[in-house]
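thread from #wetlab-drylab

HS: before we spend reagent money on co-crystallization trials with T3D, can we at least see a predicted complex? here's what I'd submit
DV: go for it
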Amino acid sequence: MTRSNSVLSSFEDGILTLTLNRPDKLNAFNGEMHMAFRKGLERATEDDAVRVVLLTGAGRGFCAGADLSDRDSGAARDLGQLLDTTYNPNIRLIRALEKPVVCAVNGVAAGAGANIALACDIVIAARSARFIQAFAKIGLVPDAGGSWILPRIIGEPRAKALAMTAEPLGAETAAEWGLIWKAVEDTALMDEARTLAQSLATGPTLGLGMTKRLIHAAGTNSLEQQLEMEIACQRIAGFSADYAEGVSAFLEKRKATFRGQ
Ligand code: T3D
């Protein structure tokens, strides 16, 4: 395990686990934490041994968004520039990473903390967790990609209501609305998340990465463009070692051993 002051990073069996670690502040982001998180995501991008990222939080919260405790109330500050250099590069890294990113939301996810979770590929939350678009409470707008992803996955009416009221949304309702994959018992969260990560880490990483790329592209592609993209990706997948192994394993009635290539 390597330790920055604010993000714990451990690597085992193809899984890079990143744990947001400022529990006394419900893992709210300060500058150092943004940089440590970015380092972890860059490692996930560059290191072929990493086949899955598992993101979670230490303590009772997942992430309370921006650390507001270092702000002088009323002091002017260019938050646009702050987003440009902190949250946005990390959201881009999560979305562009051609490997699954599993998010285990262990407690409250507020503001940018909620939207970082929603940028991940498969989100599992503890039943007691809440998602709060807290921005309106302090006069801000949804950021960290929230204004983009919320209407896409839950539709405008619910996205607007969540963003304008800043009402907490419980994990079970979040799952019913399709905002996340599922809500599980608090005590089962990390076991479920690790089991899922282990299964993905022994999966056909190349194909899983292209699956992510295809699903992202579907948001803006026409059917024709998407069909063309499926041809291109399936061509690559069809020449992969994992496809050959998957078919052999099926024919030989055994479990496939995918190498992610
Ligand atoms: O400004 C920019 O950087 C631009 C980018 C903005 C992106 C954003 O994320 S804006 C939204 C910022 N986040 C919030 O507004 C959420 C603020 N927090 C809360 O509303 C509540 O803490 C929660 C609803 C998340 C949880 O409530 P609760 O009752 O479970 O816990 P608590 O008692 O409020 O918090 C526990 C501790 O964490 C407490 O510290 P203390 O009193 O024990 O010393 C609290 O101050 C601290 N904490 C919680 N959130 C933050 C925080 N400290 C700093 N920054 C926080 N965001």
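DV: The mean pLDDT is 96.
HS: ok that's useful, forwarding to the group
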